[in-house]
Amino acid sequence: MARLPGRPCPIAASLEVVGERWALLVVREIVLGSTRFDQIVRGTGAPRDRVAARLKVLEEAGVVERRAYQERPQRFEYALTDAGRALVPVLDALLTWGLEHVVAPDDPDRVAHYPAPSERLRRQA
C-alpha cells in the first residue's frame, strides 16, 4: 500500500485491481454465467482489447482463473476464484445503490432485468 498515491488504505489497494470501469462488469458477467471471452465482451459492451486487459489484471490478482476448454485453436473460459466470489456482495451493493439512486423507477430495462435486486446476483454466484 505504501507505493499508492495519497492515503494508503485497503480501499485504494482494492481499486488498483477492480476500480477500472470494466473490471467489475467482467466479474458481473462471469457471475451471471458468461464464462467465455466473446460472451463477456457482449455482456459488458466493452471493446475486446479492454476486456482482454481486464481479464489479465483480474487473473494476475487472483480474482479469476483461466481454464482451457479447447486445444486447437486454444480457447479459454473464465471462472471466479474465492477472491472473485467474495466480490458478489460488492456487486449486490452496487446494484441496490444503483436502483435506489441512479436508475429511474420507470426505466423499462430496470423492470425487465432486475425485478428482485437484493438476491439476483447472490443466487447466481
Automatic annotation (TrEMBL):
<dbReference type="InterPro" id="IPR002577">
    <property type="entry name" value="HTH_HxlR"/>
</dbReference>
<dbReference type="Pfam" id="PF01638">
    <property type="entry name" value="HxlR"/>
</dbReference>
<dbReference type="GO" id="GO:0003677">
    <property type="term" value="F:DNA binding"/>
</dbReference>
<dbReference type="InterPro" id="IPR036390">
    <property type="entry name" value="WH_DNA-bd_sf"/>
</dbReference>
<protein>
    <submittedName>
        <fullName>Helix-turn-helix transcriptional regulator</fullName>
    </submittedName>
</protein>
<keyword id="KW-0238">DNA-binding</keyword>
<feature type="domain" description="HTH hxlR-type">
    <location>
        <begin position="9"/>
        <end position="106"/>
    </location>
</feature>
<keyword id="KW-0804">Transcription</keyword>
<dbReference type="InterPro" id="IPR036388">
    <property type="entry name" value="WH-like_DNA-bd_sf"/>
</dbReference>
<keyword id="KW-0805">Transcription regulation</keyword>
